[in-house]
Amino acid sequence: MRQSASLLITGGSGFTGRCACQHFQKLGWEVTAVVRNKGVGIQGVKVIACDLTKREAVESIIHNIKPDYILHLAGVNSVHNSWDSPLASIEGNVLSTLYLLETVRRLNNQSRIIIVGSALQYNQGDKPLHPYSVSKTMQVQLAEHWEHLFDMDIVMTKPTNLIGPGPSKGICSLIAEEIASQEQVKGTPSLHINDLSAKRDFLDVRDVVRAYDLIFQHGKKGKLYEIGSGQMRSLGEVVDHYQRLTELPILIEELRSNSSEELPSVNNENIYELGWKPVKSFRSSLVDILQYYRQSRKND
Amino acid sequence: MRQSASLLITGGSGFTGRCACQHFQKLGWEVTAVVRNKGVGIQGVKVIACDLTKREAVESIIHNIKPDYILHLAGVNSVHNSWDSPLASIEGNVLSTLYLLETVRRLNNQSRIIIVGSALQYNQGDKPLHPYSVSKTMQVQLAEHWEHLFDMDIVMTKPTNLIGPGPSKGICSLIAEEIASQEQVKGTPSLHINDLSAKRDFLDVRDVVRAYDLIFQHGKKGKLYEIGSGQMRSLGEVVDHYQRLTELPILIEELRSNSSEELPSVNNENIYELGWKPVKSFRSSLVDILQYYRQSRKND
Q: Which residue of B has its CA nearest to A99?
């Protein structure tokens, strides 16, 4: 069964999506990736371009594929844009999830579905800090309710800040991209960072994909799995690490205009119970990211 | 200002909607009612037929009317149907509200908006009992967040079980309709009731409309107003009251197959602070309901 399991990955061309496609395709799963834009290719994987905020499009995909597993990574992920286009955040995160769950339910499909929340969700009783937080919180609430009301095989996850080689817009990628770019011209990598003392739990994207794999196999329906490295690191630490990986002196200008959003530490308890632990060291992730951008520069 | 205030009432042809149209139109407000089906007329009121789950339709109405006040009564209100069509509940209650709020926000319109929740919302930490509960809870959450994130003039309300003359499908109307129908043929009014001991807070629809009026004038932005009579009455009491209003003996068969949903008592504190209190006695509401159906029968 495992060898021929059919898996639908939404957001297949994103940072986590590409890594997940590669992981499950290597294991012999039949992977179909849903991507937003036409013309995107992913090696070894069937690709369908689709706007998941259109109900008919979602229905057509699920009816055709009838997947055993669904990894729902697609979404609208910018906090900044959510202020201008809150509707796009709600439609992209809540409505797309509703259409997905409803189609699976009405088809009596027994798919195990992984819903991917965010560390930026707000806690019960708190006020959300931005529309993006509203959209991710409602997305996960909806999934929890559908699991409970309709007894569907849905598992919730909340990954932390994901890093690693690939098309990411995270801070670790931005710094590496600047270093690789300046290395070519023997310039000075220089960056503006909001708050060097702000702490984040960084986890390699390959580790989170291994967690999704374990959850598909052994995760408990209705449960929420927080997934992180368990270590909070300041952005200053990130810069220090990179400084040891390049010969150029990195110039950082710190902006303290906005205070950054404080994030709670990750509660890894549930995912540890499945036997998961991160295997990529923080340093090796940064090395791989820098290598990814150095290679991209060479290929340009 | 008050005399020429422009008011948009969505769900204008519904039970509360018709009563609200009449109330505000009599006060000299310029009332526009949005209704679902074409061909519906409401005396003294401009009527627009529109599907509020279509974004463009909502935008067109708000752009044309630019209302000073919006009473958002429209929605999909059946608990029973929400099991078969949860999508319709979410679209009809959450999405329509999102489109309404977003259109007002993007137009920089300063409308005071009343959002109408339900006694069947679930409490934080509890599990919802049906998809309808999910939809009403999310609707009110969304309104609370938009008030807070975008500083909009939104007030939340949670009315209890509304009764009174007019097209209602509530238990008080069902009993009265059966009595009026049997009075014509000298038959025996007979009803199946799930649980005679189940208690509800019944409030006359005319009293709730007076509360909405007060909230438009003096309500506090961002606040939640629960609105009820403050008295819990069993369905057995309702039957006893009706028995005193008809000469026919009422036959009740009690079904105890499903236990009915227990509802908490209403916390009227916030609305009492505005100087509101219910003026219709429970008995006079029942008399008016029975009169409404006796009259309808005569007119048939």
A: B87
